[in-house]
Fold this sequence. Notes:
Chain A is an alpha/beta fold.
Amino acid sequence: xxxxxxxxLAGDGTGPEVTAQAVEVLQRVGELFHHTFTFQHCLxxxxxxxxxxxxxxxxxxxxxxxxxxxxxxxxxxxxxxxAGPRPELALSRLRTTFDLYANxxxxxxxxxxxxxxxxxxEYLKGTDMVFVRELSAGxxxxxxxxxxxxPSEIRRRGAQLEAIDTLTYTESEIERVVRxxxxxxxxxxxxxxxxxxxxxxxxxxxxxxxxxxVARDHPAVTYEHMLVxxxxxxxxxxxxxxxxLVTENLFxxxxxxxxxxxxxxxxxxxxxxxxxxxxxxxxxxxxxxxxGSAPDIAGLNLANPIGTILSAALLLRYSLGLHxxxxxxxxxxxxxxxxxxxxxxxxxxxxxESTVVGTRELGRQI
Amino acid sequence: xxxxxxxxLAGDGTGPEVTAQAVEVLQRVGELFHHTFTFQHCLxxxxxxxxxxxxxxxxxxxxxxxxxxxxxxxxxxxxxxxAGPRPELALSRLRTTFDLYANxxxxxxxxxxxxxxxxxxEYLKGTDMVFVRELSAGxxxxxxxxxxxxPSEIRRRGAQLEAIDTLTYTESEIERVVRxxxxxxxxxxxxxxxxxxxxxxxxxxxxxxxxxxVARDHPAVTYEHMLVxxxxxxxxxxxxxxxxLVTENLFxxxxxxxxxxxxxxxxxxxxxxxxxxxxxxxxxxxxxxxxGSAPDIAGLNLANPIGTILSAALLLRYSLGLHxxxxxxxxxxxxxxxxxxxxxxxxxxxxxESTVVGTRELGRQI
Lengths: 366, 366
Ligand SMILES: CC(C)[C@H](C(=O)O)[C@@H](O)C(=O)O
Ligand SMILES: CC(C)[C@H](C(=O)O)[C@@H](O)C(=O)O
């Protein structure tokens, strides 16, 4: 039996609805497997901007620091260039505070939802990949603060304006995320694709060198280098060819969003953001669905909670080391979907229906 | 009747075969429409490296400068980290020498080839978009030369190495390509999507401002801003929603390759790279198929010449101002495909057969 403290940052839009379902599932897992999970709910995003004047307060960051993992819903509202800090800053703040450098996104279409995909079934068949996106460096975060040697600004240049952004990677920033990817590949299909643009970028040249070096410690994993433009093609043309992919921050942002569309059901996809910080039985992490806050359907009981529930499964696995429990949640979800529990529209199933079933199926699992 | 000088840079792999077919089509257009086209063939790529020790010689650049347009095949061979300059340098050299800042890629699947696409027909239906990719700035070209304030290098940082690349855009670099995109949109469906990452990059913030400013000169065109990650999703989920897209260099590299896969027939796709330099009746430009040199099938008479033939059509339109002639070539290609002239494998049709038919159909056109 284990104890764990989980910070719940439900956020905006559909965030609270989907997070509530994931918390219920975790509570049920606690009962069935005899664990004690405590949940601390904190404000984040627009709600935090309203209450505290910032997207995430120092108190909330402190509460996260005292927990084993963060369960995150979604932030952001309908687009408005209004006053106050952007709600999305909360995510960047959490990523930098806890140095969450590895964003893990498993992409595996549900067979039962085959027809929801824009891809023909024969192209989709066998797709089961995990993206490992570097999340702490690259072109990101220059805009948040002035970093020496890493300008991100708009400045005068003669009679006109010029904008500059800076892409940097140190060897250690590359190495740690590449190690994570090799480890994940070692526990799966033992194939790793490292994605870069080495024919144009110096950072990609360094990236390749580090990958070649780390690969020597993982002789059981077959790996390859692939250019990002080629990868964008292959993801659509032959997604089933991939096992684990690792890439830098912005390439990862673009490619994971493209790949998640293959499944046709972005509402079902989970993610984990991990760093070096350890918990008693694993790594500290932030867990959130891949989808956004969808303000247009917020509060209507229409949002698909499965992305968040599967994120909770990743939380059990990576932060709490509860592998059996994680698999139980995943199997329950799979069975519920297989059993046809969803509305006619694949992307949004009736929340109360899927919850009831999720919990019941979980019970059956054990 | 007009005269035009065309530099033919056939290059490596299947480049010579496909270029030869496009030249034949241009010659036939000349006969039928009473124009005089002269062709100057020059070495480029691996062949040039062998002959001159560089991917493209100053003499060849000079020959290009004296012509109205460049018809380009493909460069590069089987991957080898061998001695000598990389054949791909020829393309960068041409882009910078002639300041070819706008890369135009029309993406319109052939109805007859519907089944070649990984996308289900109902998603693909109605897809007809034109990408305008900025081709002169961004993260590119720092590696070619040392540009003040734009480092691209691997350097020491304390005990380890660090790599840096620099993304820059001036207002005028953004403005000229955005103008090109608005003009193209004005002659098509009057909808423009500008793609950026304004929630992270300063260069994207400047990009948006310039787009908003240029838009005022084009009140008839409806435009929107879209984040690059969202765009990567929408291209797969609802490609038919797009008309014209404009974006910075690297985003364009990734997104156009992804989008070209939608058609399932990359061998059929043409491209044009245009700059400010004018010819008598249009803009100087470089025209090349989207596909690469495919060394594995080089010389086997298997390569699909249609991407290059359609590039020749773009050459007629943009550089020579011969709109009727360009449309005739496009219609001929469409009819040939419609009539089923291709091998069982959609991607590679028998070259001699498609040539014969291409010419005959062209004849019928007139
Ligand atoms: C909100 C934005 C800064 C963020 C990113 O690009 O990292 C988002 O797109 C994501 O992928 O989580
Ligand atoms: C060869 C490479 C530098 C080039 C690019 O990225 O521009 C290629 O991918 C292209 O799209 O023409």
